[in-house]
Amino acid sequence: MGEFELIRQFFAAAQCARAGQGVALGIGDDCALLQMAAGEQLAVSTDTLVEGVHFPFAADPRLLGQRALAVAVSDLAAMGAAPVAFTLAVTLPSVSADWLRAFAMGLDSMAEACSVRLVGGDTTRGPLSLTVTVFGSVPVGLALTRAGAQVGDLLCVGGPLGDAAGALPLVLGERRAAESIGKPLLDRYWSPQPQLALGQALRGRATAALDISDGLLADCGHIALAGGVALQIEQSRLPLSDALQQWLGEVDARQAALTGGDDYILAFTLPTVHLAPLLAEGWPVHVIGSVQAGSGVTLVDAQGQDITPAIRGYQHFRETP
Amino acid sequence: MGEFELIRQFFAAAQCARAGQGVALGIGDDCALLQMAAGEQLAVSTDTLVEGVHFPFAADPRLLGQRALAVAVSDLAAMGAAPVAFTLAVTLPSVSADWLRAFAMGLDSMAEACSVRLVGGDTTRGPLSLTVTVFGSVPVGLALTRAGAQVGDLLCVGGPLGDAAGALPLVLGERRAAESIGKPLLDRYWSPQPQLALGQALRGRATAALDISDGLLADCGHIALAGGVALQIEQSRLPLSDALQQWLGEVDARQAALTGGDDYILAFTLPTVHLAPLLAEGWPVHVIGSVQAGSGVTLVDAQGQDITPAIRGYQHFRETP
Lengths: 321, 321
Description:
Chain A is an alpha+beta fold. The first copy, chain A, has 9 helices and 12 strands. Chain A has 2 domains: 3-139, CATH 3.30.1330.10; 154-317, Alpha-Beta Complex (Phosphoribosyl-aminoimidazole Synthetase, Chain A, domain 2). The longest helix of chain A has 19 residues, at 61-79.
């Protein structure tokens, strides 16, 4: 038996590979078998993380296991889907039992937090990369797509933005921070929490949704393009964490919130009638702007003046047809 | 817009990304949405191909596109599933329009042949590798798993074996062959034809099935282990192509058939009662042995003598509990 066959058995024995709801046949055969309830559709998304591109060389394998799964599951949250299962394709330059144990520990803890089961995958030799494909369940007609924003809707996000971008110098070891600042930022980078419950609460309410992976301006550009509308963001309404503001100062914190990626917070458009009920139910809904006629994304100051050109690199993010 | 965003749009515009049966939402949102008919389960499998490990450096991108998809779809055939969709995660060191065009052409032709639709994926920068996740549909209770072989069943395969292994020196440019020999062997390596129709014809008939990817002996070991039975293979019954026998001679051709990988031909166990009807329907069913009490895989000669130890490397393939 080869070492990569041993790895397959290692993953097959992991906590997150045990049977779960919706999984008729798990790891170990030619295919896994998933069983949808009547009236449900299957949501599918694939994400690849490559060493040296999406995470630093020699990254902590436990953190990597957490993050690889969270990044993929976040796409289920963005569709309003309930998580069911995932497959993992892992390419490794060599086999280290310690690395695998730590990686599986991180994977398991995120799988537990997201209620998602490992049902298959592939293990190959080569430069380190991870491809996670996630499966979720969503009632027919209730999936949240990027299209559908209506003029007059509110533009909202599900939490503070920019923390993951703020964490980058810490991730890369370029700077150091006090524990009280560094820990919350690094947690947001290495262990993003997919907003699964919020996504499901938005079913039948939000008109468009996605998770912020490329940065708020870029991702709002996708919503504007898909819906044939313009989005206006009020700079003063951007939710920023205390840690990020202390770390970068207000101006750079805002820049991180607007253009930094990797937050995996939901952005969505909401008819005004749904705001009060969502807030009353305790969901983290932050109104940051509105949907208007036109195209593209505009940033305005407290006086309603267009300040989009003042954002560094903003032109990359004006996605118009 | 970055070059990798352009690649995403390139794939989104490919022939194989247009809508198809079972695909409620295709490429371009956070998730694709698949819709199963009532009484159907979703079969899922993931395969990764890494440059320099699973295919040679500087391989023809058109052939690579064909093969990457065929290898993954073959797992659907092995479960008796009907193909529906696939996702593609492609990691590329750099962007070449010519490479992408040729790759998409190969992908398209195999997608067309297999009736399968591209519904999503990811495009990242890094050392060349391809991860394909395939989705198929199979009626509840009719999926062909590796478990279930019964003592007294026939052991069968769906066609000649060893051609892909025989092609390897040609793939690597180590040897040359006449067109009449080289072409059929190279076709089997670069463009394996997943036995989808055969897999579906075996529903309710075969007691266990898989596709041969690691070599006949190794893969029969999986069936023996999963079913708690022994498999006996009669050497003289191994189907060998004329091209392979001319290329390697009979002894080495048999060795290739027994231990070479990459054939993607189905191997399955069949109650004897089902043999005649399958042959009458015209399916390519070759009986190569039988299921017996015990464990492991044994090769016997025409006189029934155990000749397993004479096969080079056979010990790797005796999978016993």
